[in-house]
Amino acid sequence: MISLGISESDIRLEATREDVGLDSIAVVELALVLRREKGLAVTEEELGATATVADVAALVAAR
Predict the structure, then answer these.
(1) Residue 2's pLDDT is what?
(2) Residue 1's pLDDT is what?
(3) Considering the domain boundaries, does residue 36 fall inside one?
(4) C-alpha dihedral, 29 to 32 to 33 to 36, nearest 10°
(5) d(Cα 8, Cα 32) in Å, to the nearest integer?
(6) Which residues are catalytic?
(7) CA–CA–CA angle 18, 21, 26 (5° rounding)
(8) Helix ranges (DSSP H) in 1-43
(9) Fewer Cβ close by (within 10 Å): the C or N end of the chain?
(10) Residue 6 domain flag
């Protein structure tokens, strides 16, 4: 399980990255974890271009 200190109750598909606390530092951390632990080729730039949790989920699912 990936833990970025984000409360599960805050994670809703329509929530923005900012709503859930996924700031620029957390985006870098998430990209690193996805690459190292999950083998997914997701860049910080791609994650940073997302607006909502649904967008992040779609990006990850596409990989």
Answers:
(1) 56
(2) 43
(3) yes
(4) -160
(5) 20
(6) 23
(7) 105
(8) 24-38
(9) N
(10) no
pLDDT at 20: 86
Domain extent at residue 38: 11-62
CA 61 to chain centre: 11
As for how many domains the chain has, the answer is 1
- Residue 2 in domain: no
Question: Which residue is listed with tokens 């990255």?
Answer: 17
Q: How far apart are CA 40 and CA 5, in angstroms?
A: 21
Residue holding tokens 């998430």?
30
pLDDT along the chain (63 residues), means of 10: 65 86 88 92 94 93 91
Q: Compute CA 44 distance to the chain's CA centroid, rounded to the nearest angstrom.
A: 9
Q: How many residues does the chain have?
A: 63
3-state helix, strand, coil in the chain (%, to 5): 50, 5, 45
**Residue 52: strand pairing partners:** 16
